[in-house]
Amino acid sequence: SVAEKYNRRAGNCVSNGIWNKVTIKDHHKILHHMVRLGRIKRGSFVLDWGSGCGHSLQFLSAEYSVHGVGIDVSNLTIAYARENTTKANMHCVADGSRLQWIASNTFDHVLSFGSIYHVYNRTTFCHVLR
Predict the structure, then answer these.
(1) What Å distances lie between residue 23 and 28, 34, 99, 118, CA to CA?
(2) E strand or H helix at 47, and its extent?
(3) Percent of the chain with pLDDT over 70
(4) At 8, is the pLDDT very low, low, confident or very high (cuts 50, 70, 90)?
(5) By the 8 A CB rule, do 68 and 42 touch?
(6) Measured between alpha carbons, how far is 6 from 40 in angstroms, rounded to an integer?
(7) Residues 42-70: pLDDT tens digits?
(8) Which residues pair with 92 in a beta bridge?
């Protein structure tokens, strides 16, 4: 399962993330582009879908005063995020294809950095994006 895969990788959660091919500098450049293209404003409340170790929300909080909720299927990466990133954000273990517990219009923006490709079913993909 996806959760098992990322639980196996959770030991790689370190201050620069779990990426083995994208540097933290590259990651930050991509996030700057996501903010610009998504027109994410300072103070926005965001959902980080597939948040992993929590570094994206950590960066957005520091650089843009954005706060939010990170969800991920890996309980180990969520545990890392809770212990090692800013307390301005929340991190929850959740199945990103089942978001009925979140009320409509809760978030100003939803972002996903390298996670949305795990949604294989087209109908579910469209539901998640909605």
Answers:
(1) 9, 17, 31, 22
(2) strand 45-49
(3) 72
(4) low
(5) no
(6) 28
(7) 999 999 998 888 989 999 999 999 999 99
(8) 71
Closest by CA position to 54, among listed 104, 116, 111, 102: 111
- pTM, to two decimals: 0.78
Domains in the chain: boundaries: 2-129
Q: What radius of gyration, in Å, describes the C-alpha atoms of the chain?
A: 14
Dist. CA 13–CA 69, nearest whole Å = 18
Q: Is 116 left (phi over 0), alpha (psi -120 to 50) or beta?
A: alpha
Q: Return all residues near 117 (Cβ < 8 A) that are at least 6 apart.
A: none
Q: Give the C-alpha separation, 121 to 83, whole Å.
A: 33
Distance of CA 75 to the CA centre of its chain: 13
pLDDT classification of 122: cutoffs 50, 70, 90:
low
At residue 18, does pLDDT exceed 60? no
Tell me the CATH class for 2-129. Answer: alpha beta
Residue with tokens 């959740």: 94
